Amino acid sequence: MNLSFSTVACPGWSLAQAASAAHTFGYQGIELRVLDGKVVEPSTLIGRSAEVLETLGDIKVASIDTSIALAVDGPEWAGQLEEFCASAAAVGAPVVRVWGGRYPSSVRYEEAVEQVSKRLNEAASIAEAASVQVLLETHDAFSALSVMEDVFANIPSPHVGVLWDVHNTYAVGKSSPHEVWSSLGDRIAQIHVKDARPGAGELWDPVLLGFGAVPVRESVETLKQADFGGWLSLNWLKFQRPELEEPEIALPQYSGLLQEWIK
């Protein structure tokens, strides 16, 4: 198991600063979600692979995290995914993250699940051509374990899988780490972690590790027992929640405990 962090944690940093912090705080990789202060777009990395690789040095790109939402996007999603997969291959990232999204109330649950499943089967061919994997994150309307089970019921390709956000499956469906892994473990290729506690309404507030209600340590134990060898990635939402602790505080606090728990 290797540690990484998403660049949503440090939206004000340059890529060089993120790489330096990874070295300093004990991370082996980063997820590219925000670059130069902006969310990555399909064209963001085109022509920049050499620059990215030189800047990162021995820090790996764990994934490229897109805004593609398979349940709601128009037909342009496929072309965007092709560009993202090409960029991922160019910088050595094994994974491209996509979402299901929040579909409108006029769309029936069965229709949304069917569309996401169909598009993931199409995404498998795109991913295979680029020698990467496309992962659907447990996020938005697709956070609950039961929903992901329905989505992946008819997806045979190993080129698509699951990015398990531990907070989301717990906050939405109260699924334990053991339950999630028992059901989806053979499809899970990457993990997002952040601790949080219930806030206003359905919103949970991210907190430093150990100060919330998310079973992060239990998740790490589950992954250890399964001999998980992928990326365990901090998804500290500083980009979306500017009031959160600065990356200089959150990154070392999380990595210190996670490294201790991984041993």
UniProtKB/TrEMBL annotation:
One term of GO molecular function: isomerase activity
Isomerase as UniProt keyword: yes
Domain Xylose isomerase-like TIM barrel: 21-239
Pfam families according to UniProt: AP_endonuc_2 (PF01261)
Source taxon at top rank: Bacteria
Keyword Isomerase found: yes
Keywords, ordered alphabetically: Carbohydrate metabolism, Isomerase
Full protein name: Sugar phosphate isomerase/epimerase
Annotated organism of origin: Pseudarthrobacter humi
